[in-house]
Design goal:
- The protein has 414 residues and is α+β, with helices and mostly antiparallel strands.
- The protein has 2 domains: 259 residues, no CATH class; 121 residues, Conserved hypothetical protein from pyrococcus furiosus pfu- 392566-001, domain 2.
- The chain is built from 13 helices and 21 strands.
- The strands form 5 sheets. Strands 1, 4, 5, 6, 8, 9, 10, 11 and 12 form a 9-stranded mixed sheet that branches.
- Helix 6 crosses helix 9 and helix 7 packs antiparallel against helix 8.
């Protein structure tokens, strides 16, 4: 079963929340970050990259820069920009945009659950990146962006969250054209109800944050050996997550862009595609696939629909995934793209940016061909995770994207 633990969160002062929170660092340009840290001393970006305030820049794996991040975090606590809660609590976060509302519970979860099968994953992590994040976490000592988990929704948890969010929010603010709300749930009766409700959930699924999860687990295992503490109760034996039911998040496709045609003409590409697909020229300015096993292709100013023929389909789970169909029948044999993680001839584009952006990038000449995919279903997502199957790189794009610095977990180890 899933054990979600309350904790003493470190939060911005309610009247400073909008000043403190930030997108993840990699969602900004260098200039944007420099402007923010120059004009907003309370921004969490000052903790992530404190040296930028002095016009300096260091690599993320620089130990001295990491120590400065920890020092800046402690300075934020001393100056009351941030404060630590007095009681263990769960936190409920809600993000509202024009067409969707996301609501989830922020809690910590045991690193042991990553190894014992309670936490399910669907992406392959890279060992060097795990090590770098683990070393960063050891020095800086905080989780500031929760791993995003999901689970098949339960009506009693939905009803409990609706009840608890009827209370006054700890913070309500506007950021990045969205409304954000945070509730602090610390009374013992409500804490017990949340803990009990999640005890009926036997597994949770990583939607976003595989490397953050893996690095937290690695660090907890190292510290358990170093301290001879295998109790599972130390702060560092858990890490921060937000838990959203499957109907309270969105799953979008991840499209592909190819830089060149591997020396083939469009006619030659279409001739090879016809071996496995029903290929149709689409007389529309923009086009997206309408169902599973249909792909779109844009090249030389034209859209095509590619529907996998029934005699090329089978019941293997991996072969039902459109990203695998694209790789198996098109990218590898036609475009000679066999290592999507490391080949710089391929790029990935979130479905949020739409067919418009695929068309624009090809028309601009930056890429030769674009492929649009139909979104992975939640059923496919759960099936892959339950069977410990790994999806290809960049197959799922989950929303919401979360903020840094809204609820922080101090792992208690420097």
């Amino acid at each position: 079963m899933a054990h979600l633990f309350p904790f003493k969160g470190i939060l911005p002062a309610p009247d400073k929340t909008e000043q403190v929170v930030s997108r993840p660092f990699d969602k900004y340009s260098r200039k944007e970050v420099e402007d923010i840290v120059k004009h907003n001393a309370a921004s969490f970006l000052n903790i992530i990259k404190p040296e930028l305030a002095n016009g300096e820049s260091t690599k993320p794996d620089n130990p001295e820069a990491q120590k400065k991040s920890r020092q800046k975090f402690e300075a934020f606590l001393e100056s009351a920009v941030l404060h630590k809660a007095q009681q263990d609590a769960y936190y409920i976060y809600r993000q509202v945009k024009s067409d969707f509302t996301y609501t989830g519970i922020i809690a910590t979860i045991s690193s042991a659950d990553y190894r014992n099968g309670v936490i399910k994953i669907h992406e392959q992590t890279l060992a060097p990146k795990e090590e770098k994040l683990k070393d960063y976490l050891r020095v800086v000592g905080i989780n500031a962006e929760p791993v995003m988990f999901t689970y098949p929704h339960q009506s009693d948890i939905d009803e409990l969250v609706n009840e608890l969010t009827g209370k006054t929010a700890y913070a309500a603010f506007h950021f990045d054209n969205k409304e954000h709300f945070l509730w602090e749930i610390s009374d013992q009766a409500s804490v017990d109800r949340i803990r009990t409700a999640f005890a009926q959930i036997d597994r949770v699924y990583v939607a976003d944050g595989h490397h953050r999860s893996a690095s937290s687990v690695l660090l907890s295992e190292e510290l358990a050996l170093e301290t001879d503490d295998h109790s599972g109760t130390a702060d560092w034996s858990r890490f921060l997550g937000i838990f959203l039911p499957d109907h309270n998040l969105q799953l979008f496709e991840f499209n592909r862009l190819v830089k060149d045609t591997a020396g083939l003409t469009v006619m030659q590409i279409i001739e090879q595609l016809a071996d496995d697909f029903d290929v149709s020229l689409i007389d529309q300015p923009l086009y997206k696939p309408h169902s599973l096993h249909e792909l779109s292709m844009y090249t030389e100013g034209k859209w095509y629909s590619l529907k996998l023929r029934s005699d090329r389909q089978n019941n293997q789970l991996e072969d039902k995934l459109d990203a695998n169909i694209l790789s198996k029948h098109i990218l590898a044999p036609i475009f000679q793209l066999k290592d999507l993680r490391n080949d710089d001839r391929i790029a990935f584009l979130s479905g949020l940016q739409g067919a418009e952006e695929l068309k624009r990038l090809v028309d601009k000449g930056q890429y030769a061909v674009a492929f649009g995919l139909f979104p992975v279903s939640m059923e496919q997502f759960f099936a892959f995770s339950d069977r410990s199957k790994i999806m290809p790189p960049k197959t799922t794009w989950f929303e919401p994207k979360l903020l840094n610095g809204l609820v922080i977990y101090d792992i208690g180890q420097r």
